[in-house]
Specification:
42% helix; three-stranded antiparallel β-sheet; 19% strand; D-Maltodextrin-Binding Protein, domain 2; Arc Repressor Mutant, subunit A
Amino acid sequence: MDRNIIFPRSIRYLLAVAEHHSFTRAAEVLYVSQPTLSQQIRQLEDLLDVQLLDRSGRVVRLTAAGEVYLHHARRALGELDAGKRAIHELQDLSRGSLRLGMTPITDYLAIPLLDHFNARYPGITVNTLEMPQNDIKDALTGDHVDIGIAFSSTLTTEEGSDEIDSHLLFIETLSLAFGKDHPLAGQQGPLSKHALEQESLILFNPDYALRRHIDRYCLEHGITPRIAMEATSLSVIIEIIRLGRLATILPDTIACAQHGLHSISLLPELPHHTISLICRKDANKSPACLAFEELAAEWSTTRCQLKPSHRIRPCPLTDSCAPDEFKLVLNARFSETPLVASMVEAGASAVLWSASADDRVDGSKTPRQGDDITPHG
């Protein structure tokens, strides 16, 4: 009966008497005196104002009221046992839940991390909520999300919050992105601020952090951008620029990984941006939350081992991009790490080092590994 220690003592005593049909035997099993056991059950009957046991015969039996009460008591005991098991499962990460708040940009950048987390902890349900960055901070303080993934300029003047902790994952660069049919496709950068003013742009609306950073960049450098469209969806922005009329400003990782997109750097250079995990300082973090933070740190370390010259897809931002042989370098260098090994098993490797026919530096149209699964926003 040790496992029932959190169950009310009087009910545990009643269960024992009902099982053994004897006060004496129940007291022996529970290692208590018979008067103590009898007194506890009598107090329970007084509390309920009903007789639970029939003591008139040689064998103690439950009354009708006792049968009904004990039925519910056993159900309650079962629920308590289930709760105890659930707690243990949370601790060993075989089950649980995690609520993530992300912007459209960090949502995309974190896809490999989400895939790896699911591969390592398939019993944990992850709920991703896409929202503007300020809303993520409000959601954290309001306990509506467990972790946020933030996107911030390295030159930001925003003051840190007393309620929010931030942990840097990696730094991302920004460039002007456009489709393969855009007039700038194939040109070498950097693009001057005066040339930027001639381009029609589609940008996130001002509620989003990336847009505010772009607006600040333009203001600081006296640039008057020609904004033709605003959107709240990254996939919409990508599909619009893919058609060739408009351009946008995106992190290099996104621009270089997209089928049929090209990028060019700007002068003055756009500020670099940090991608960080944010959480509430006083939060009581669940095991799933702690596991995600640990895995994110591991993932960011592995991710940052890719040197800038080794682009994950050919991209006009550099004079030369990763050659075919880089796939072999990646395999040899990282396949033994748990993170990359898991991503390879999940098929993510094709996305990391594939090159589409449209993006080949040598202009050939030979399909390459991963073209059919390259994300399209």
